[in-house]
Design goal:
261 residues; alpha/beta; 5-stranded parallel sheet; 4-stranded parallel sheet; 13 helices
């Protein structure tokens, strides 16, 4: 039995990833022995939910030349990863899987199954999708009766609009996305005047590199924000919704908890 198990593991294809979101899906789905390299951003805890896990592997900067020394059976990339790199790897005979961005829980499920199929881990993919669906139903069933008007304020005064993963997670949690209601599509800026006029019940911060001085984070200390500080404030770290992962549903749970306090 041990020999058969070792033989099955040896038959699994090796995998390299060159995109932050793809990295985390690979680390979630693959057996540890399959992973040859992941991109450098995945080892940064400000960017990645799986930074500790990613740091165990050699890191790459997304170039085709780097991957040649690893010679992976499968390369996982994002649809917007450097087009030249993807094309060159394909011309050299590598199997390159390009993942579309995740804008919903259904998209997360799709990419989990795409990665799982590419690296011979279909059972693991199916189990993760089943857990994802069950968690989403659990969160949806606990939506608050009153949907608080909510604004996400990111460094630099940016926010999240409709047709984004963050907006879908807000809907799942049962909170109203003020920026989406005002017509903002995907990602964009939110003027201080608009923020004040919206009179939100809940302000959501991301805490992104909060300890590092920057002009982007200085926006979060704007004196006018004191006028809406009577609103509840919650922090949902940026990595929870920058990439679509099973852990992204934790963002919805955090929002729901803040909405019901």
């Amino acid at each position: 039995m041990l020999a058969a198990s070792a033989g099955a593991l040896a038959a699994l294809p090796s995998v390299a990833s060159i995109n932050l979101c793809a990295d985390q899906l690979v680390l979630t789905v693959a057996a540890p022995e399959q992973v040859l390299t992941v991109s450098w951003l995945s080892a940064d805890p400000e960017e990645s939910l799986l930074a500790t896990q990613a740091a165990r592997y050699p890191l790459n900067y997304g170039s085709a030349e780097e991957l040649l020394r690893f010679h992976p059976d499968v390369v996982i990339a994002g649809a917007y990863t450097n087009a030249f790199t993807r094309a060159l790897l394909a011309r050299l005979g590598y199997k390159v899987i390009e993942l579309e961005p995740e804008d919903s829980a259904a998209d997360i499920a799709r990419n989990l199954q795409v990665v799982a199929a590419a690296i011979g881990r279909e059972e693991r993919g199916d189990a993760l999708v089943a857990e994802l669906d069950a968690r989403a139903r659990q969160i949806a069933a606990a939506r608050p009766e009153h949907s608080p008007a909510t604004v996400v304020v990111r460094p630099g005064g940016f926010t999240v609009g409709e047709h984004s993963l963050a907006d879908e997670l807000m809907k799942l949690a049962g909170v109203r996305n003020v920026a989406a209601e005002q017509g903002l599509d995907r990602w964009g800026s939110l003027s201080m005047e608009t923020l004040l006029a919206s009179r939100p019940d809940l302000i959501v911060l991301t805490g992104y590199r909060a300890s590092q001085p920057s002009l982007a984070n200085a926006v979060l200390r704007h004196p006018a924000l004191r006028l809406v500080r009577n609103a509840r404030t919650a922090t949902v770290p940026a990595p929870y919704w920058d990439c679509g992962l099973p852990q992204s549903l934790d963002a919805a749970a955090l929002l729901q908890q803040a909405a019901t306090q």
